[in-house]
Amino acid sequence: MKKWITLFLLVALVALSACGTDESNGSASEGGEGEGESSSESSEMRTYETENGEEIEVPANPERIVVLSSYAGNVLKLDGNLVGVDSWSKMNPNFESELEGVEEVTADNLEKIIELDPDLIVGLASTENVDQLKEIAPTVTYTYGQLGYLEQHVEIGKLLGKEEEAQQWVDDFKADAQETGEKIKEKIGEDATVTVIENFEKELYVFGDNWARGTEILYQEMGLNMPEKVKEMALEPGFYAISPEVLPEYAGDYIVFSKNSDTDTSFEQTETYQSIPAVENGNVFEADAKKFYFNDAISLEYQLEFFKEKFLGESE
């Protein structure tokens, strides 16, 4: 179980930098193998300061990016050209069309990464083989959660030479989320509480305010209320595992259920679950967990639209 929790921590976002399959899916730029002059040789370079204060040379305009973490959506939102991504990004439905033809890679398959001829690699501080990756291309890693979820997008904007574009997106998103939050509070009441849960394999989890699954939007931007029991157990660590039997103790007036339909959901049929007021009142909003795992720019946009639809009946 300890080993699995470690895996979940990385993925959930998260970012599972060292796991994933190694299927061949082609390349985003119509040919994964470098042709002619290497992109890393043809790009103008500039200095970027990492989170550790180290200054490294990165392409001024990277053309072939490999992401080994949960930041694929940030890169895509900034029109970065991805040629390789981790398995969890690859299976995210939010990115399906944008990642068509992009290779699925792992940090321990250095040969495949070399074949993709990247000019920039992005990963987590926990990504394996970082020293070897640095020999392939400039490699930048981030500690998950060290920056705020919106600050992270701006930082990736800096890395890609698109800081102003990233900051504009953040400003627009915050304004939209906060305005939506006011509308929601007006509709459901200032004191109403919201719980975010997720089932994964045989476990059930509740979440704090900074572990993706829309939590940053609901609690940080919208200012919606977290039930006291959730606050007590999940706020500091980010998430907390519970048994379905005690879910009523954590359930708010509204429940956002990040649901893995391919794992056990039999607890939904129990009297304990059915008797929760939020369930009885039809205030459970089910979301596809694969679309809720991350807190990158594209996933956040999806999550915000989900909340507009479920809480307010609004849709694009």
List keywords for this structure.
2 domains; 316 residues; 15 helices; alpha/beta; globular; disordered N terminus; Rossmann fold; five-stranded mixed β-sheet
What does this structure look like?
It is built from 15 helices and twelve strands. The chain has about 325 residues and is of the alpha/beta class. The protein has two domains: about 1-145, Nitrogenase molybdenum iron protein domain (Rossmann fold, 3-Layer(aba) Sandwich); about 175-310, Nitrogenase molybdenum iron protein domain (Rossmann fold). Helix 7 runs antiparallel to helix 8. The longest helix has 26 residues, at about 165-190. It is globular. The termini are far apart. Residues about 1-40 have low confidence and may be disordered.
Share in helix:
25-40%
First-residue to last-residue Cα separation? 42 Å
Main beta-sheet strand count, sense and barrel state: 5 strands, parallel
| CA radius of gyration | 20 Å
How many structural domains does the protein architecture include?
A: 2
The strand order across the widest sheet is 5-4-3-6-7
Low-pLDDT residue intervals, each spanning 5 or more residues: 1-42
The CATH fourth-level homologous superfamily of the largest domain = Nitrogenase molybdenum iron protein domain
State the CATH class of the largest domain. Alpha Beta
